[in-house]
C-alpha cells in the first residue's frame, strides 16, 4: 500500500484586522440608528429595540479577540454592515482563486514542489464564489498544474474531508501530488447585523500538499496514519442561500440566506460527538488519546475545545497539547484546524503523533491522524 504524507502547508492571512472593540462600536451604532428609525414602532410595542453587543461577552463566550478580513470598511460602516468587493471581469483571477493561489504557493514551496508537480486540485470550503466553472479548475490553471480539479463543501469540515479525498487519490494511484486549498471568505456570508453571530468569523485561506512518501523531499513530513469522516443531519447550523432563491419569489436578502445557528445547542451536541469520534479513530489505529502529542482542533470556541480535550484525556490541557488560534483569527470555518497545524507543528519531534480534527455544520466531523517522520 502506498504510504502517503502531508509535505507542505500554506496560509494566506488577509491584510485587515477588526478588533472586538471596533466591531462592537460599529454594531452598536447600527443598533442605535435602527432604534431611532423605528422609534414609533418600538414605543407602540410593535417592534423590539435592538440591544447592544459587548466585547466582554464575545471574549468570555467564545475566546475570540479579533479577526482578519479582506475588506473592513464595509462591515464597520453602520449604514452598510457587509463588505464591499469590486466585481471582476471573467478574464481576471477571481478573489477566491487569488487567495487560494497565495496559500498554495507557500504550501508548494514548503513541499519543495512547483505547480507543474500537482496533478489534482481540491478546493474545499464552506461556500463557493460561483456555481461554475469549478474554483479548483481556475486554481489549477493559475498555478500551472496538470491532471484535474474539483470543488467540495462540507462546511467547517471541508478541509478534513478534502484531506481524505487527497489521501485516497494518492493511495489508489489516481493522483501523485494533490493540492487541497480552503479559501474561506466568511465575511461575505455572516450576518454582521445579528448580535448573536456578528463576532464569530474571519477570512483566511489554507493550503496542504499531499503526496506519496517516495516522492516527498520536504524537510518536514507527516505520515498520514488514517482519516475518518462522519456526518449526522442537523438544522442547528444552516444557510439557505442557493441558486433557487430567485425562483422562490421571496426576499433574497432574508435572514435565512446567511449563516445562522443555535450556538448553545451546537456546543452541547457536537462536543460529545467530536470526543467520541476522535477516541474511536485512535482506538482503531491502535492508539490511546493520551498517546497524542498534539491536537489541532477546529477553532470555533475556546470552551468547546477545552471540553473535547477534557473528555479525551481526562484532565485540563494547555496550548502545548491543543493550540488555540481563534483568539487571533476567529472561526475561519474549514481552515481553522489547518491554521493550527500550520502554525504549531514545526516544534514536534520525529515519531510524535498528532490529530487534526474539524467539527461543524452538517453536523460533520473529520479526523486525520498523523505522525511526524
Ligand atoms: N453581546 C452581548 N450579549 C450577547 C451577545 C453579544 N454579541 N450575543 C448574545 N448575547 C447574550 C444573549 O442575548 C443571551 O442573553 P440572555 O441570557 O439574557 O438570554 C446571553 O448572551 C447568552 O447567549 P447564548 O446562549 O447565545 O451564548 P453562549 O454562551 O451559548 O455563546 C456562542 C454563544 C459563542 C455562539 C457559543 O454558543 C458557541 O460558540 N457555540 C458553538 C458554535 C459552533 O461551534 N458553531 C459552529 C459554527 S461554524 C460551522 O459549522 C461552519 C459553518 C459554515 C461557515 C459559515 C461561515 C460564515
Automatic annotation (TrEMBL):
Beta-ketoacyl-[acyl-carrier-protein] synthase III C-terminal domain mapped to chain residues: 284-371
Keywords in alphabetical order: Acyltransferase, Transferase
Annotated Pfam families: ACP_syn_III, ACP_syn_III_C
Domain of life from the UniProt record: Bacteria
Domain Beta-ketoacyl-[acyl-carrier-protein] synthase III N-terminal: 150-218
InterPro entries: ACP_syn_III_C, ACP_syn_III_N, Thiolase-like
Name listed for the protein in its UniProt record: Beta-ketoacyl-ACP synthase III
Classification of source organism: Bacteria, Pseudomonadati, Pseudomonadota, Betaproteobacteria, Burkholderiales
